[in-house]
Amino acid sequence: MTSYRYARRLGAVPPSFLGRLFAVSTDPSVISFAGGLPSPAVLDVDGIARAAADVFAESGAAALQYATTDGHRPLREFIADRYRRRVGLDVTADQVQIVNGSQQCLDLVAKCLVDPGDTVVVESPGYLGAIEAFSLYEPRLVSVPIDERGPDLGSLGRIVSGDRPKFFYAIPNSQNPSGLTYPDEARRAVADLLDGSDTLLFEDDAFGELFFDGRPREPLMRRLPGQSVLSGSFSKVLAPGMRCGWLVAPEPVLAGFNVAKQAADLHSNHLSQLVLMRWLETNDLDAQCRRVARFYEQNCRALIDALDDRCPGLDHTNPEGGMFLLARLPGGVSSLALFEEGLRHGVAVMPGRPFYLEGGDDVIRLNFSCVDPGAIDEGIARLAGALRLLGH
Amino acid sequence: MTSYRYARRLGAVPPSFLGRLFAVSTDPSVISFAGGLPSPAVLDVDGIARAAADVFAESGAAALQYATTDGHRPLREFIADRYRRRVGLDVTADQVQIVNGSQQCLDLVAKCLVDPGDTVVVESPGYLGAIEAFSLYEPRLVSVPIDERGPDLGSLGRIVSGDRPKFFYAIPNSQNPSGLTYPDEARRAVADLLDGSDTLLFEDDAFGELFFDGRPREPLMRRLPGQSVLSGSFSKVLAPGMRCGWLVAPEPVLAGFNVAKQAADLHSNHLSQLVLMRWLETNDLDAQCRRVARFYEQNCRALIDALDDRCPGLDHTNPEGGMFLLARLPGGVSSLALFEEGLRHGVAVMPGRPFYLEGGDDVIRLNFSCVDPGAIDEGIARLAGALRLLGH
Predict the structure, then answer these.
(1) B143 - beta bridge partners?
(2) What are the sequence ranges of the domains in chain B?
(3) pLDDT(A20) > 80
């Protein structure tokens, strides 16, 4: 046997940039704005360790045993209750499915909804992990530009009425990669536009707990309760390595999702669910989120100050929260060229290309969550040096 | 919006029996042979708890952080090294991908290999979780009967040469549901039959550490190194709830698998990988496997003694290891009827239907890993009562 017969869908995945990025991230001489990790400084290791010890002492073998596909019931109740209290979303634990980080929602929602050739709408720029996950189900991917005012409604409206997309995937809060947040008017307008169509909204809220002002933004799901699914995660505020996220969905949609989840891996890590639940019972999640958001806010301000000071030719977004901003390169500079030149100067940035269905080489993504605060200014000084060498 | 437009593949999944089973498993008055859990008595809770405490103390925030898609390198090296030492399989860590329990291999292997309509061969009876997982990729599923001599080679040969299946999925060691183990001759014959065809062997070895005689059986992969993938798991010997399994594959196949894994959930639970690795460094896995196997062997003997004594009309397999046996019902008795009548007598068995692409109502699966040893004889006495009421 000389060759392997892969499924056609494997050929639909765009080439990944992550291997190259990972090689960069392990070089201590490089100041990296290219990654996407939470800061290790804000992870509550002692708190999680205590919670784990409690779980072993109290639950014993049950913590290590197989469990139900939908997830640990008290954790699902905590999540539903928090949505009710925090943003007035009327959901119950029966509408919550636990998954391995919200990335798994991207895979399973597409698996449940997308036949080859179906139209799926993503934001432009959009989350590259979503583009990869969706691509494996061979959709016809189309994108809608977003900016400070939200998504381009004319473009979205034409696609929804003309192409009947299966869903519109959006990150309305501090989007990865742009750092953009939909204003309240845009939330209303998108909900009005989709309402009554047969296009679902897939609302990814990975960053909604990380607004610098601490004010929760209203999920679009509140206006489209029967017509949207909403994913969330503990990865950005507690422990990404424990891979614990969730999907909130109308019960009929969740039933299909549960079938796909069971086929995918039976259930999510049960021990981790118990440990996180114990942490949530014995700690203050709001205080933890404020702590993380304050840390990222300071980093974001330092990054923007350094950019405005040292790279005045770079237009950039002004995030209200999250972990990323997007900068537009001065005319003619390629983000891939800047990536390579930056490495020679000891600084890493994320080229824009993977965030776009086409184009995108004129922007870079800068992460401010996982860079040493004391190294931000020096990193941007190096970036300015690289830009000068490229003619700016 | 009144209805949801699901992907066609959701309609391909056979109806699940698990909800009904789960309801049964929570009733303490029912003696259940229907489940598939490891015994809580053999889970090393204290050892895992110590390993977790060590990991938090030594690794700190790194244990909670995002990690690489392929998995924790020392764990991959441990797995490869164990295959080399234990069964002479010449593999390296580069050929090992960590997943969320070996169930995830079923999903991701099918995702990488199966286009709708492709032929996939399963055993008859076969593992129902595999039938479910594969079905979502809309293959043409065909089955090959297995018995004490292994798979029906004539049938397998005709399918391989006639239909060019993408892969043959087999559990050669103490199969779920039958408890059957391929004899050595069958291993050679299946490898010879597939060798040089373009059909991959997908060898699922969930139970190979649980042979009662402690003798490792040779993986078929040893004879088909470039033409097979092999899945394994810590779920049956250490901690199912931690969802840690792996796939061993030729590097080109693993590259595609890695893309699918990253799209599915970025990586498996990092904390759990570190905790398991720590346990493996500080404990004796061989001793743990012997302990589990001895416990299951005693249960299996008690179950067979009770069956032969109280239900002489039931033909059954004689497992060399694992957690299950299969019993053939006397003429005319339906396994679904026996399931319902059994419940009225306070005993639960697993009907055979879900393990077959068609038929199968004339067999039941009996689990002997997760039943109280002292309750086995009483459980089978109740089953005999139910059989009598059904005319036997």
Answers:
(1) B122
(2) 10-44+287-389, 47-282
(3) no
Residue ranges in chain B whose pLDDT is less than 70:
1-2, 18-19, 22-23
CA–CA gap between residue B195 and residue B165 (Å, rounded): 13
Chain A CA closest to residue B249: A4
Q: Does A264 touch chain B (CB under 8 A)?
A: yes
| pLDDT single digits (tens) A326-377 | 999 998 899 999 999 999 999 999 999 999 999 999 999 999 999 999 999 9
**Nearest C-alpha in A relative to B10:** A112
d(CA A246, CA A230): 8
Cβ distance A166 to A114 under 8 Å?
yes
Q: Which two tokens stand for residue B339?
A: 């399931």
Listed in order, strand segments (DSSP E) in chain A are: 31-32, 96-99, 119-124, 140-147, 150-151, 167-170, 200-204, 228-233, 245-248, 315-316, 324-328, 347-348, 350-351, 363-367
Closest CA to B107 of A264, A99, A266, A267: A264
Neighboring chain B residues of A66 at a CB cutoff of 8 Å: 36-38, 235, 240-241
Identity of the residue in B114, B235, B271 whose CB atom sits nearest the CB atom of A242: B271
Task: Give the span between the Cα atoms of B382 and B392, in whole angstroms.
Answer: 13
Domains A8-44+287-389 and A62-282 share a fold: no
Q: Encode pLDDT of A180-202 as tens digits.
A: 999 999 999 999 999 999 999 99
How close B345 gets to chain A, by Cα (Å)? 26
- Evaluate if residue A26 carries a pLDDT over 90: no
Whether B75 has its CB under 8 Å from any CB of chain A: the answer is: no
The mean per-residue pLDDT over the stretch A231-257 comes to 95
Tell me the pLDDT tens digit for each residue of B197-229.
999 999 999 999 999 999 999 999 999 999 999
Q: Shortest CA distance to A95 belongs to which of A270, A263, A246? A: A246
A 304-363 residues with CB below 8 A of B?
A: none
Class of domain B47-282: alpha beta
A99 close contact with B: CB closer than 8 A? yes
Q: Is B14 on the interface with A (CB under 8 A)?
A: no
Please give, rounded to a whole number of angstroms, the shortest distance from the CA of B48 to a CA of chain A.
Answer: 9
Cα dihedral B21/B26/B29/B31 (nearest 10): 50
CA distance A5 to A89: 47
Whether residue A2 is predicted with pLDDT greater than 60 in this model: the reply is no
Q: No. of H helices and E strands in chain A?
A: 12, 14
Q: What is the mean pLDDT of residues A249-275?
A: 95
Tell me the pLDDT tens digit for each residue of A197-226.
999 999 999 999 999 999 999 999 999 999
Whether residue A24 is predicted with pLDDT greater than 90 in this model: the reply is: no
Other Cβ atoms within 10 Å of A381 Cβ, number: 16
Range 191-220 of B in CB contact (< 8 A) with A? 196-198, 200
CATH code for the part of the protein at A8-44+287-389: 3.90.1150.10
State chain A's mean pLDDT as an integer. Answer: 95
CATH number for the domain whose boundaries are B10-44+287-389: 3.90.1150.10
Predicted ipTM of the assembly: 0.95
How is B140-159 classified by DSSP, letter by letter? EEEEEEEETTEE-HHHHHHH
Cβ–Cβ < 8 Å for B75, B277: yes
Q: Which CATH architecture has domain A62-282?
A: 3-Layer(aba) Sandwich (3.40)
Q: CB-based contact (8 Å) between B15 and chain A?
A: no
CB contact at 8 A, B183 and B146: no
Residue A20 or B224, more confident: B224
For residue B16, list chain A residues with Cβ-Cβ distance below 8 A.
259, 262
